[in-house]
Amino acid sequence: MKEIPIKKYVLYLFGISILIFVLNKLFIRNWILENDLPDFLQIVTYSIPNLIEAIIVTLILTGVLLQFRQHFNKKLGSIKTLYIHVISLSIAAVYVISQELKFHNLGGNNVYDFYDLLASFIGLIGTFWVIRLFGFTDETKIDTRG
């Protein structure tokens, strides 16, 4: 199966998001709590995992659905990229928001917080906007020979 050519910025966004998540979990959050910094920074560090979860899930679903469309090109090839992006966003939103509202606990021990829900929305909408603005696949690297 041919891989879809993902734009470099998507890979960087994915990697930087994971890095920020790890740094926040291991270092930043503890440092902010130990140094008794303003509440705003505490809210941000507690909400970063929700923001990043929304980004990561949206990117993964977009890649999976685009790969799925390519693999089943005869049946699904006519589905517009916009629809793939909307479907990815919708599935990610259902997962991320239903977890935040405690409909399920697939992501781990979760405590409802308005700011976490807000961070999830920002991650979902922001990722969708970036994907729509800059694209997800690198059209210049698509092999049209086969």
Question: Can you give a write-up of this model?
Answer:
This protein is mainly α. It has one domain (8-139). It is built from five helices and no strands. α4 packs antiparallel against α5 (114-134). The model has no long low-confidence stretch (mean pLDDT 89).
Total number of β-strand segments? Answer: 0
> What is the general shape?
elongated
Beta-strand residue percentage: under 5%
Number of domains: 1
Radius of gyration: 17 Å
Mean pLDDT: 89
The structural class is mainly alpha
What sequence of helices (H) and strands (E) makes up the elements?
HHHHH
Question: Nutshell version of this structure?
Answer:
Helix 1 runs antiparallel to helix 2 (39-71), helix 2 packs across helix 5 and helix 4 (81-100) runs antiparallel to helix 5 (114-134).
Task: Give the key terms.
single chain, 146 residues, mainly alpha
Q: How do the helices and strands line up, and which of them pair or pack?
A:
Blueprint: H1 8-34, H2 39-71, H3 73-76, H4 81-100, H5 114-134
Helix pairs in contact: 1-2, 2-4, 2-5, 4-5
